[in-house]
Amino acid sequence: MQLKMRILSFHHIPNNGAFLFAYSLLELFQQEFNEFDVKILDYKSNRLATYEYLKRFKFFQNPPLFYMMRARMWRKQIETYFELDSDIPHFVGEKKLQESFFNKYDALVVGMDTWCITNGTERPKFPNIYWLPENIPVPKLAYGVSAYNSDLNLIEHSAKQVSAYLDGFDIIGVRDHFTYQLVQKYRSRRDGLVEIIPDPTFMYDFRNTNVVAKLKSLGVDLNRPILGVLLFGNNALTNRVLTHYKSKGYQILAMSMYNAKADFNLGHILTPFEWAEAFRYFSFCIGDRFHGTIFCLLNQTPFVSIEKDIHLPKSQSKTLDLLVGFGLETCYQNPADKDFNVDFLLSHANQIEKSWESSFKPGIQAKIIAQRQAHFEFIYKMKKELHKLGFENISSDS
């Protein structure tokens, strides 16, 4: 009987980054661990699912129920493109749910921003299933996991639990330096594997979606400059940005969340695969989304990334951490900085766009190749660790 490996992530959120993270991780593991039957556990945190569900009932958009349409499209994409394991017990607590894993699965994997310890409604309350807190004799793996948005006081308050749960993991691949430092501080085990790895979406292989035909059918003129926008929450900043670019004759494409001032709202129209490909048609992109930044890099599209989580110190910024690794800190702006100025932001964005081909783009592809190679190297080490854990049929050949 084939061994079973299951992935726990935020796959169900109507969010392009969450979808493409889970899709890329699933594809990578199915390719590299063919000894296992690899699927995504179709688990939804009640707290997170409720938060996302309530978003659907926002009526003041054009079209109305924009977010409901987006959610329906998302579920169809999930059911079509993910290999899901929905055979999990319902109406039971997380402890009983995890105990059921012991009888059914041979390895469990968690990934994405699932280790954030916060009181906010946008994350499951700690402790939660993504920490796999129950002491069950199943290898626990973390891949591309992050705790970036954590409250440092809550971490200290829960230090014993954090330490115990981290000790339960045999293999940990974290996505950013903040999470790596957290693991190093609280994980007392010195065996196993703990490293920083790139986000799995760097392994994404673009599908030929022909999104250009859809964009044209919606009225987007590819002969005119296009600004891709992924901004949410800072209305004053967003309005200044859109007004500036409209005055320059740019078409404004809102790529995820609804924006009343955009020329085109595409969050409920483009599938995640079309979204990923659409970046290559932008003249410039301004956004506050982490995976939006990654897909600017993958499409080699000029951009500026705005910090979304301005309450966090820079040491916890996942976007800044990413861009430092690419040597592109100049493409990062934080509205919380004392010297932040919208006029400078717009002028700086203009300079980046003008000099992109000569000063920025030439170094990106080599860094992307290095990111992909880092995944293969970590996978090789994972196989050796799994071999030590008793999976003798797993090849550890490079």
**Biggest sheet: strands side by side, in what order?**
3-2-1-4-5-6-7
CATH topology of the largest domain: Rossmann fold
Domain count = 2
Rough outline: globular
* Name of the CATH architecture of the largest domain: 3-Layer(aba) Sandwich
Q: Please write the string of helix (H) and strand (E) elements.
A: EHEHHEHEEHHEHEHEHEEHEHEHEHH
Which class best fits the helix and strand makeup?
A: alpha/beta
Structural summary, described in words:
The protein is an alpha/beta fold. It folds into 2 domains: 3-203 and 369-388, Rossmann fold, CATH 3.40.50; 211-365, Glycogen Phosphorylase B (Rossmann fold), CATH 3.40.50.2000. 43% of the residues lie in helices and 14% in strands. The protein has helices at 16-32, 46-55, 66-81, 94-104, 152-157, 159-167, 177-186, 211-218, 235-247, 272-278, 290-299, 318-326, 342-360, 364-388, and strands at residues 3-8, 36-41, 84-85, 107-112, 140-145, 171-174, 193-196, 226-230, 251-254, 264-265, 284-287, 303-306, 332-333. The strands form 2 sheets. A 7-stranded parallel sheet has the order 3-2-1-4-5-6-7, sandwiched between helices. Helix 11 links the parallel strand 11 and strand 12 (303-306). Helix 1 (16-32) crosses helix 10 (272-278).
